Amino acid sequence: MTDEILATLIEAIAVYKEKIADLEDTIDLIKDETKTNQDEVVNVKEALEKQIEDMAIATNKLIDKAIKSIKIPEAEKVDYYRIETSIKAKINRLLHEKDADIAEVRADLKRYVIENLARFKPRDGKDADNELIIRELKDFIQTNKSQFKGKDGRDGESGVDGVGIADIKKDKDYLTIYLTDGTKKRFEIPKTTIYRGNGQGISEAEKEQIEKNKTAIQAIDEAAVKVSGDQTIQGDKTFEESPSVPIPTNENDAVNKGYVDELDKNNSKFLSNSITVTVGESGKDFETVNEALENLSKFYPLYKKGGFSATILIEDGYILKEQLLFDGIDLSFITISYEGSGYLLVDRDYLTTNFDGRYPVFGARNGANSPILNLVFDCQVELGSDVAADTKDGIYVSSASMTCVGTSGAVNCSGIGIFISVGALNTNTLIGSSNKNVGIYAKNGGQISANTVTASSDTLYALYSYSGSVQSNSITVNSRANIGVYARSGGAISAETINASSDLSTGLQIINSSVQAITINASSQGGVGVYISSGTLSVSYLGSSSVSNYGIQMYGGMVSAYTSTISSSSSIALYANAGAVFSSEGLTASSDTYIGIYAREATISAYNGTISSQTSISAASRGGTISIENMELSNSEDSSNYLAIVLGGGIIRSTTGTWTNNGSGNKCNVSAGTISSNGYVNRIG
């Protein structure tokens, strides 16, 4: 509020006081009816009231201007009508003061407004209404009743002859003030229900503009994007900042980045470059191999000349506590490797998921192409799982395909080391061993192809082909309690070299199956070196030995060899029975304690043969045929038996050779058969 406005306001108040004083003088004249007539008094009174009314209007304008000049904090939303009403009331009180200082008035008004901001705020943030105006007016009149003086100079309310306010009432359109003399004054209530901040009503033109504004606002509202409710929005919209949307639930809902990222984790991606992820307990990409596989399985490799792949590298010292199982999925672009120099330890306690009745560490079935394996599982750790131990295999493949690189396989398994059924496994070096079951097993069309195969078992077969096939350059097997290499029921084993041994049973056993090799070395400490029943064995060099049983035992079947070396420490070196056919270009057979070669209703033939027995018969035939073009036959001086014996129509025949009987027994015994040799008198018994 400026000093100039205050000065004008004070001046107006002073004039107002003078007019009031004139009015009081006039009232005094009214008391003295003898001084003037009544009409003159009334005229003067009306003229003065008109002047006072004009002065009030001018004063109100000054008050409006003064109010607008008061500095109100911008953060405060106030009702200027209420401020105006209060200041008018305060000014009315100033009218009865003798003097007014400009500075004091300015300070007083400003302090009054600032200290009472709270009571000037409109209710619910709305503009003042008629009810508020009536209430303020009523309060003002009630507060200032003393200004209505009675004839006796006292307050009108208490004056005997005075005129005061008896009551104030409001009806629909008027405010009525009832005076104590029985008269009343009526004031028309403005029709408008909308007030500006200063309390003034609006004009008809303003009403019309408001209606136009309402229409415009309604149009804007209909075109605006709402914060709630259903709405259809058309046209292209450009956002300077990305909007936030919730997780979608309906088909046409918008999606947020977090939702898309989560989908991206579960969707396939194109893999155009080789990638390697690591698995370990800490500081690696993943804590488990399955997590790594789940992540990489979302990739789909694109064609690239020269190829590319994904590799899972397991940290040194890691213990595998999970099963890796693949059902009908192609993950052949992934290679699983171990960075350690030894084998990857497996805790057998975690092999609990049934997979075709087996519980393997690594399993593939139903057309799956498993990841490439570049490691050996070592299943020596067992913490007492209640799952049957003999079904906890190392690798299980059924109607699926698996490829290995480097040295791969599974050892120290309680179940089968490597089990391939109606599937295929291809690798460079394959290792399989079991403590309680088969080391490596190809079954029902299962195919194993490896450059090198090493198999062992503590209790059953080291390498077992049951209607399956094994192809390798080199096979080395050992069974501590059973058969070393076992081909059965249409099984096929083909290798350049087979080294098969057994501590307690057969080194190499063939039943209704076939084995082909360039070199075979079969041995047994407690059983047969090679056992054949209705099967075939084709080999360039065959070496077979037994400490306590037959070197070779045949019941039907066929052996075709270029060179054979057969020995037994305590039984027959070569025994052919039941229509078996043994044929070798060169044959060396010896027994320390029993027969060298024995053909029983079977055939043994060779071009060159060296046959011997230290303490018993060197060659025997019972209903069978032994035909060696050049046969060297001998025994030692410890022998007390025949050098050769023929029974049941058997035949022993040679063209050249030397038969040397160093023992004390007869050289030949022909009970019913034929011995024909250039080195011995032909004898037919």
Short summary:
The protein has 685 residues and is of the alpha/beta class.
How would you describe this structure to a colleague?
The chain has 685 residues and is of the alpha/beta class. It has 9 helices and 43 strands. It has a 19-stranded mixed beta sheet that branches. The longest helix is centred in the N-terminal third of the chain and has 32 residues, at 38-69. It is rod-shaped and about 185 Å long. 36% of the residues are buried. Mean pLDDT is 77; it is low at 98-103, 117-134, 145-163 and 189-199.
Q: How would you sum up the major sheet?
A: 19 strands, mixed
Number of strand segments: 43
Structural class label:
alpha/beta
Mean pLDDT: 77
C-alpha geometry: rod-shaped
Helical amount among residues, as a percent range? 10-25%
Number of helices: 9
Report the portion of residues in β strands: 35-45%
Which spans have pLDDT < 50 for at least 5 consecutive residues?
Answer: 98-103, 117-134, 145-163, 189-199
What separation lies between the terminal Cα atoms? 157 Å
* Rg, alpha carbons: 61 Å
